[in-house]
Amino acid sequence: MSVLPTEKTTRQRILSNVAWAFSGKIVSLASVLIVGILVARYLGPTQYGLLNYVISYVTIFTILSNFGLDDIEVREMSKPERSCNEVLWAGIRLRVCLATITYVIIIITAYLHHSDNPDTFRYVSVYGLTVFPSCLNTIRNYFTSQLLNKNIVKAEIIRTIICSLLKIVLLFFEAPLFWFILTSALDIFIVSGGYFLSLRANKRELCRYTSSAGLTRFLLIEAFPLMLSSSAIVIYQKIDQVMIGDMIDETSVGFFATAGRFADLVVFIPIVICQTLTPLLVKAKSEKQPSEYARSQRIFVSSILWSSIILATVMSISANIVIRLTFGEAYLASIPILQIMAWKAVGTALATSSGQLIIIDHAQKWTAARNVIGCAVCIVLNLIVIPVYGAVGSAIVTVATVLCAGFLSNSIIPNYRKYFNIQLKAFLYGPSDLIRLRHRHV
């Protein structure tokens, strides 16, 4: 049996959901390929590296403000017996408290770490304010849980257009780096405001504040293992740029960030597939027989895994021409980094898909362990490799890290070996499964 239900209306919602998600990403891609490249060319590798250093520095601390709540909120709001209104406001209230603590920590650590560089401290302080509007990501999670991606995408498209126009104005007036950092922060404020306005326009009844201390505690307890897990993920995804900046220079961060931007674009299709199919897999678990659900799990992982393998292959082969035609001669050092980092998509696909299976099965107790393994691999190997091989070495570490965290670690955690077996079968039988699935629906 397929992961997808057979009901016509559900199929239509899925297709609509995917179409909206892809539309939003295409607009974002256009912004990256046009405005983002113009900004990178204008700033040059050094200042562009500093911009990405600041963003990575703050992102590491969002571990605390997000607290691993995203997947828990989607899961709870996907359940018909749950009140979405109560989950929504419990999540927002919890996030606001965590965001306040997070910003204080950002200011203190930035002051201690960059006391000799007031400009960097100022940049971090400004961009750090984005932890507050990010509290409204709970609204985004509501739309995801209800297969209403169009509301998310509309807000993100408006955000992309406004911020792209602002950056073009900044380029025209040859503005300094501070204004680009301010615009990057404004990006988060605009999209969060868009989520709220979309909720108010389409689901006004959910804008009514409700208070449930018990539900807030429930979310906190349920999310805690995922917070530990997501903290390790954020660290091994962003610590490399911070370590490159501290151990080499900001120019190398610029080269690494350029390659990372294209590598992240490769990841988006598997992520969209995963986010779209997850609510349906939740439904399949409750409606299907165990043997049918097991096959649905394998098809779920196979779809995400093999789309990432195809995309990684294409990006790795075309890295030379992609960098030359977009960022230009000043960024040629990014080519070997991108050829390696494109394969990060495969590890990310394995980690994302198995992570959703773990959450659906309420087995997230040990998710922290597998991501701590990845985090440890990332930090230790970067400390060894960066002084010798620079940003290229860090790219190799990035790929090794996501594979360790999302795949190999499942083989050594007893409770997760069944997910490792699903991943192995997806590697071995994924193409044939997907071909049969396609023929079944033709």
Brief write-up:
The protein has 442 residues and is mainly alpha-helical.
**Major beta-sheet overview:** none
Distance between the termini: 14 Å
Q: Which sequence of SSEs, written as H and E, runs from N to C?
A: HHHHHHHHHHHHHH
Number of strands: 0
Oligomer: single chain
**Helix segment tally:** 14
Beta-strand residue fraction: under 5%
Uncertain segments: 1-6
**Which structural class best describes the helix and strand composition?**
mainly alpha
Can you walk through the features of this model?
With 442 residues, the protein is mainly alpha-helical. The protein has one domain. 84% of the residues lie in helices and 0% in strands. Helix 1 packs antiparallel against helix 4 and helix 1 packs across helix 9. The longest helix has 59 residues. It starts with 7 loop residues before the first helix and ends with a helix. The N terminus is likely disordered.
